[in-house]
């Protein structure tokens, strides 16, 4: 790793050992902010480890210290905060903070955790170390993918646009909505990695995936809608690396990463002996699954040859008799994190929001500057560039960029005109980052 190393082995061990679950009331507090920064550091280090194809100390540490269940609980806790508490904050008419970055950090925390889980769940031992919380994680992924399909049916993901007429909280709501799309795509990858372990998953988890949620049919819906692809001005665009980019005509038949994740998940859920023994092929399921035959072209089979087995399975399914829904009496585990958190906080959403508004999300100017300095130390530019999935792209038009904002050094642009047009959106963040640099 050399110069790209962000954390020494001893530092990473300390950060992993210190991971813990926070009550919803404490989200955004000083201790919570410290853990958020630690998660970001672990996330970036895990990506660096994978990028240079060396050992996976972050993944190993998380397994050794049994911290995957902690991350899953934190993921679901911040998801609940965003659904139950964040809307209450946004409805407070006289709450117009000068800077919404402290609230943004809580909103962004879900993306940080799901990104870390996406990086480490590639390894089967991580899935196994999740223990019973894998049920909660399956439910989480199902919620995100269901929302993704629903939004695709209503015109696709929200567009990023100017918000000069909105107050700061309305602008933050828009950012959270945009972020939700990326989170759902990360959840798709995590779900695919869980299906890689289908031969070692508990019967309760398999039943949850195949019977309760009918994930194969949901994945078919995703392939049909393909929310990560769109046509703009007669050109095909795909979403990858947090941006939409135009696909060259010669590359349009190439399988995208996200489409590949869906196909692999379907392969695992339909062709593994363990899943086949549990999946009830009703007439509804049969009708949905047979839609896949239209997608299994020679071009696709050339890129994923194993799908020939899926093609054969579908040919057999077309001739097979459907099964009636099973009514077996089975004692199964159920996910408990969401239900427990909701039970513990039911009726307290207003009180939590009021407490956080008064004690957490109204920092002084000095507190903001100190926090800005810590953020600048966490998000080192050399590391951010190393973990970037592709070459920098213009923050305004998404073209390949070579010029960086001279003030904050964070955003990239392809030309001066794009920087000027983007300043209205970028200005506040730029000033805050510059203050952090001066504080150092």
From TrEMBL:
Keywords: Cell membrane, Cytoplasm, Cytoskeleton, Membrane, Metal-binding, Zinc, Zinc-finger
GO BP term, pick one: protein localization to cilium
Short name of any one Pfam family annotated for the protein: zf-MYND
Domain MYND-type, first and last residues per copy: 394-430
Chief place of localization: membrane
PROSITE patterns: ZF_MYND_1 (PS01360), ZF_MYND_2 (PS50865)
Function: Plays a role in axonemal structure organization and motility. Involved in axonemal pre-assembly of inner and outer dynein arms (IDA and ODA, respectively) for proper axoneme building for cilia motility. May act by indirectly regulating transcription of dynein proteins.
Protein name (database record): Zinc finger MYND domain-containing protein 10
Organism: Cebus imitator (Panamanian white-faced capuchin)
